[in-house]
Structures are given as structure tokens and as C-alpha cells.
Amino acid sequence: xxxxxxxPVCQLSLRRQENKWLCDNHHxxxxxxxxxxxxxxxxxxxxxxxxxDSQMLNARWRFLSxxxxxxxxxxxxxxxxxxxxxxxxxxxxxxxxxxxxxxxxHRLNSGNTVCYGTxxxxxxxxxxxxxxxxxxxxxxxxxxQPFVSGQLDLILNIFAPADWQEIHRLLKPGGLVxxxxxxxxxxxxxxxxxxxxxxxxxxxxxxxxxxxxxELINSLACQFNLDLxxxxxxISLLQMTPYYWQADEKCRQSIENLQTLSTPVNVQLYLLxxx
Length: 275
Hints:
The chain is an alpha/beta fold. It has one domain (51-274): Rossmann fold (3-Layer(aba) Sandwich). 30% of the residues lie in helices and 27% in strands. Helix 3 links the parallel strand 5 (89-93) and strand 6.
């Protein structure tokens, strides 16, 4: 068996043994009762509880579970499977509650593909592991991923912070990255309820960060109109975005009182190959 999970202390390979991961130097990391494993060392944390909080995560789980972003998940799967179906090891960095990785795993439907998800938020991985127990979930920082160099076939980076040097280290030669970022008018109508002036997103700027180690081989714009017809979904959409914290209390209350909301969704997808 190819052990590609890496000990964060000594960088030897970790192997799973019952309810823990351990290396030949006898470092061991327990798997929590919820199903995830914490590989984030104390000196890698910038706060006691880093990452998204429970309110944001639970709101996103409710919203995504209702299928509102299913076209985004479908587009991600389409772009990847059009390119290849030979994927032994897939990693989602900044996986959150695991919605997109689980969707891809289901679409591939291959017992030969092993999927891993990492996030700096324990709360995120509690949700991910509870709902998707066939995937290995690890608490880890984006810039210090617990995997052996040059072993991954595909990395997902979906609305999450990225360390491109670390991503390049992890991938096999010719390995792929699926990058998903907000398109120019993503959630435009929601943003107009919060800001006096709404500046278009600039997805192209993300590509400037990846050169020269990656080649753009395909792209796809996932665009559709989101029509929400109940208050619960509108509240979940607001709470799962950073806009919730950027709006004042009066603005938040006004949006949460809405019974309907229509807004464009525009997600730009890029498929990149490691050079």
C-alpha cells in the first residue's frame, strides 16, 4: 500500500492503524470520534480556533444540502472527468464541509481512487467526516499539507486560500489542479444589498499567482440565476459568506427578513497542469 500521508513532526509516511495514524518514529495522531484526524501542530496555529466558525459552516451545509449549488458541483466534475478518469489520489485543500470533494468521489464511483480533505477548521471537518466517512479528513494548514511530495494526481482548491508552492510540491509531474473562484458578477444582487458600490470580482487575477509552475489547460464558467423562495435559504446564503460579517446589524436584519431573493451565480473554473 502506498502511504502518502506524512507525519507533520518528522515527515515520515503515516499509516492508519485502527483509530490512529502513526509513523515509524512512533509519532501517533488519534482519529477523533467524529472521524477526522488533527495533524495541525500547535506552532502552526495563529489562533485557538482557526478557520470558519460553526455558524458559517452549518449555514453552508444547510444551503448546499438543498442543492442550490449543484450546477457548480456538476461543472467541477465535468471539467475534471473530460480531462481524465485516471485519478489514484485526490486532495481537497480548504475542503470545508466536504461537499465538492464528496460530489466528485460519487461521480467517479471508483474504488481505486482515494480522496483526502484538509481544512484548518476542526468544526468543518466534524461536519465533513460525519456525512462522508469514506474520505480521510485532516486538520492542516494550507501552506503545510501532511502529504509526501509528488504523489497526488489532482488537487481541488475551491473558494479557499492557496499556497501554490505547496500545491506544486504535492502534485505528481503533470498532476492537475481544479481552481474555483468567484466570477465577475457572482452573487451580485446580494452584494448590492450590502454595499453602496459593488466592484466586479476579477477571477483572472488568481491565475497571475500560479505561473510559472502551472499551465492552464481548460476553463469553464458556471453561470445560472439563483432564485430563493424561502427565508431559511436566504439566511443560510448570507451566513455562509463573508458578507454576513461585513454588513451592519440593520442590513443583516433587512436581508434575513426577505421572503425571496434572486441573484446571479457565476463561478469561474480553471483546470491547471503542473509543469
